[in-house]
Amino acid sequence: MANQDDVANKQKAIQNRQDQHDASMQKGDKGSGGGGQDAAAQTGVRQPSGDFPAQHLAKPGLEAQMELKPKFMAEGYKGSGKLAGQVAIVTGGDSGIGRAVAILFAREGADVAILYLNEHEDAAETQRCIEAEGQKCVTVAGDVKDMAFCQQAVDQIVAKFGRLDVLVNNAAFQEHAESLLDLDEARFDETMRTNIYGYFHMAKACLPYMKRGAAIVNTGSVTGLKGSKKLLDYSTTKGAIHAFTMSLAANLLDKGIRVNCVAPGPVWTPLNPADQSPEDITKFGQQTTFGRPAQPEELSPAYVYLASSVCSGYVTGVVLPITGSVGE
């Protein structure tokens, strides 16, 4: 119902109010300079580490505008037909984790539909990458807070491809707050309705088309496992997503449909420079045991595992933490 550009402008307004509040609270505080030594762990393909660019993106955040582009191609990952002939929908599939997942799904033989808000440039690049893998792709712009949009989009995708096998719920809104008093009801609603209502809407729209062997994979978060001091509303939604995953898994098991969740730690995507200040983003992910954030390509194989009944046919209701920290 709402125009997606209006939704993006609403999210920018939330961001601008928080940025102004942050600036008034800092009163000239200076961050310690960048550089420093790089003690980040590298356990496979070498990934970016050390201080990240001091950049702040306007919401919803374009990957095309990031100074340091996320790594999403997973060049070392070889497909083996785990999703051959299947059709997948990925929300928030234009960039970040969603883009990386969509590309690996295509490499495994699936045609992919990506839903996104209004990041048309990013969506076009993701579509190009999927088609370069030899698979079909459609892109649909709209707001997952709107049940009517979700239903129309799913109907359109199934009409085009003739089936639906995998749903990845991944679209999210995030904006930090120093205090509970900074959160008004409209802002809380934007986070809640995007992050958990959107998952509910998409699952409900997709379910009538899904047959035995289908899978739903939700994106949760370490913040839903441990909480987060400055992400009160976002953490709340991620905890809800974890509970929604386990509950829906139990509900759909007799239909032969599995439901699981990936709970990432910090991942280098547009979501984060569109939230944190330029000063804070330089140290992004350095608090993990790895000493660095993940790149999207380090998360996407987990989604393949959970989407493919060949790999995880005996796995449902699981929240899989990929946090970069020991014991989390």
Tell me what the structure shows.
The chain has 328 residues and is of the alpha/beta class. Strand 1 (87-91), helix 2 (96-107) and strand 2 form a beta-alpha-beta unit. Helix 5 runs parallel beside helix 7 (232-252). It has helices at 4-26, 96-107, 120-132, 147-161, 185-206, 222-226, 232-252, 278-281, 296-307, 309-312, and strands spanning 87-91, 111-116, 137-141, 166-169, 215-219, 258-264, 319-322. It has 10 helices and 7 strands.
Task: Provide a quick synopsis of the model.
The protein is an alpha/beta fold and 328 residues long. 40% of the residues lie in helices and 11% in strands. It is built from ten helices and seven strands.
Give the low-pLDDT segments. Answer: 28-37
N to C succession of SSEs:
HEHEHEHEHEHHEHHHE
Separation of termini? 39 Å
So what's the overall shape? globular
Instruction: Name the strands of the widest sheet in spatial order.
Output: 3-2-1-4-5-6-7
Overall pLDDT score: 90
Helicity range of the residues? 25-40%
Number of strands: 7
The CATH architecture can be named as 3-Layer(aba) Sandwich
CATH superfamily: NAD(P)-binding Rossmann-like Domain
CATH class: Alpha Beta
Q: How many domains?
A: 1
Strand percentage lies at 5-15%
Q: How many distinct helices?
A: 10
Largest sheet, strands/sense/barrel: 7 strands, parallel
Note the quaternary state here. single chain
Give the radius of gyration: 19 Å
Query: What would you call the structural class?
Result: alpha/beta
